[in-house]
Amino acid sequence: MKKIIYSLLVAVLLTSCGGGNENSLNPEKDKKNLNNEKLTGVPDKLSYDDSKLILNGSGIRSKYFVKAYVCGLYLPEKSKNAAEIVNADGSVAVRLHIISKLITRDNMERVVREGFVRSTNGKTTAIQSQIDELMANFQKTPVNVDDLYDMVYTPGKGLQGYKNGKPWGPIIVCGPEFRHALIGIWLSDDPIDPDLKTKMLGL
User: Fold this and answer.
1) Domains (range + CATH), the chain
2) What is the pTM of this model?
3) Alpha-carbon span 9 to 14, nearest angstrom
């Protein structure tokens, strides 16, 4: 019962619309500690097949007392323009490094699906099959602390997912529309975490 309560709590916290620390007892102190914390699992460069990408920015998805995952954005060249990054059709990768034992594949799926809805203003019909493929990959194995999830988009090919460096399923055939929605989870005008968006832009 306790595990179920924790899982539900995490799902609610991660999908909350507010910034990372706005409801903290001491937001300035928490923000300082979060900014000074060493981020793990996000190297300066990421290479998969033909994609050789550099780290644009990274931060921690955090809400209240839960630090869920480190998230890194990888691009061919650094950029601080969220709209240009989202609307481009170039190679891009997002890495998630799980740092909380409270994260499960079920609440991760709920959060990502909600992110797609927010990113597209609820217009997910055209990319629903690709979203479902991505979620099926998340459900294949349990989520554990220190797991590394990479979502690598290559123009003309689609999205290849990796877990701990190994492909977690076949490539998802998709185009720019799916890419825009995926990256928009973190960088759209309605991101899942505005503070994390800023960090991923390197600001």
Assistant:
1) 2-200 (3.50.70.10)
2) 0.81
3) 9
